[in-house]
Structures are given as C-alpha cells and as structure tokens.
Write a structure and sequence with these properties.
single chain, MetI-like fold, 2 domains, about 0% strand
Amino acid sequence: MTATQDAVAAPAVTAPTADRPKRYPPTVGFVVVWAIWALTALITLVVPDELHVAAPLVLGLLLTVWTLALAGWAAYAYRDRAATLRLRYWTPWIGAVGAWMLFWEFSTAKTGWLEPPHFASPQQLLLVFYTDAGILASSTWHSLVLLVIGFSIGAVAGLGTGIAMGWSKLASYWGNPVLQTAGPVPPATLLPLVLVLFPTTYSGSVFMVAFGVWFPVAVLTRAGIAGVGRGYFDVAQTLGASKNFLIWRVAVPGALPSIFTGLFMGLGASLGALAVAELLGVKNGLGWYIQWTKGWAAYPRMYAAIIIMVVVCRTLMLVLFRIRNRVLAWEKDLVRW
C-alpha cells in the first residue's frame, strides 16, 4: 500500500477532549484534624459529666456544627484551589485548637482531673458569656474607649517628641536626657503620683495609658528620622524644597517603618498599662471586671474577661498590621530573595 492509502486506511484519531477540572482531595492531616473535632463533639454529647456543669448539650451541638462546617469547607475546597490553599494553611492551627479543646473538655467536665474553682470547663465559660453578656459588653466598650483615647494621645505626643528630637539638635539636647530618664519608668510606678496630680481618676487612667505609648513611639520615631539618608535631603534641597517639605515629605515618610514599629510596641505597652489604669477607681472595664471577679473567686468569669481581652488585643494588632501594610506597600518591592 502506498503512503496515501495507509493514511486513508488508518483509523481516525479523535481530538483530545478538554482537560477535566482538577480535584483537590482532603489531605491525611485534615482527616486527622477533622476526626479530633468529631471526637470532641462526641465525647461532649455522649460521655457523662463527672462534675456538675451547665449546658453540655449546647456545647456539644456547637462543636457538632463546627465539625460539619469543616466538612463543608473540605467539600467546597475539593473543586476550588484557593479554598484548598487556605484550608491547608490553617489545618495545623485548627488541629492544635481541636486537641486543646479535647484535652480541656476531658480533663475538666468529663473526668474532674482539673477541679474547680481554679479550673473551669468549656461549658462554664460558655454559660458566663451568656449570663454576663451585658456587663462584659459594657466593660469591653469602656476599656476600648479608654484605650483609644490614651493610645491616640500617647501616639501623637510620641510622634511630636520623636520628630522634634530627630530633626532639631536643640530639641535633642534638652529632650534626650528627659526621654532616657522618664521614658523607661513603668506606668504602674506612677500610680501614687497620678492620684495626687490629676483631678479625676479617669484622666489619670488616660495619662497612664498615654505614657506607656509615648516612650517607644518617641524613641523609634527619632531613630527613624536620624536614619534617613542624607542624600534624600540634598536632592530635595537642590530642587528648592522648604524646611516643612523636608520634614513632612522626606524625613517622616523615610522614618515610617520605625514609626510603625514604635506604634506596635506602644500598643503592647498600652494594653499592659490599661489593666493597671483601671484600678484607679474606674467603675467599669475589663481590668476592673477581672479584679472584681478575682476578689469573689469567680474564676470562670475572670477567664471569660481574659479571653475577651486577648481577642481585643489580637484584633487591634491585626488592624494596625493592615494599616502598616497599606501605608508601606512600597516596601514589598524592596525585598530580594
């Protein structure tokens, strides 16, 4: 047969079909994590409580709903790559929290290994969040208001001090000894002085929070401005830049990474000062609530307030991180691997 006849006689080859969508089955690690949460829900619902605790059924149902939500997440991620990446990223943390919840429930409510009043079961904390929802919400709001006011005043004062000392040799000469002497003093040690100098306990509380923010912001703002390269100022002056332009368009933007580091440190210091500041006589707030419940040995209530304070701190840190990432987006292009 000729080549032409061979080609005609050969069976026709069909065009390749379109690629099937890629599938992303759950990993072994996720299956183990899901089993941990399912076991926790099962133990909560089925195993009888050794200690008298409230609402085990409610907690068991909540854990069951969360376990079903994890299964739904895995089912959705089976066809979606972005959801799969998020699920695989968070799987270790979900597993760690699940293992802790299993140990917590088993060692308190189910076996009584960790006895009250110093240890509380998850059911007890859940009941506290329900019964004390009003006072916990009010305490959280008052603490947030006090923290925002004190942090804002301290941040503005720290920025002003750091910019002045970083730019002016005269301000640095007079301000540096004061900064190095008064700045490292813990705000809690100023408590007797605050009680004497301030007319109200609330204004004294605001001062203590602001003082905890002022020092790290001032130090790192000054260091950031001092670290801006001289060449930037020379170029700006050559183009006719004024003094205000050099400060606000060259020095301060160049010092922003250090400034944000100071704000992060100041936020941590302000949260520590907040708990002490609310002991001055403030009649509401998370710090006040913790001290009040501790005096009554109501440890589950105290733990609930601590959890709220941790969530608040975490949220504020995330907000500040988002602001920093937005303002310093240009830094991402400077990283080289």
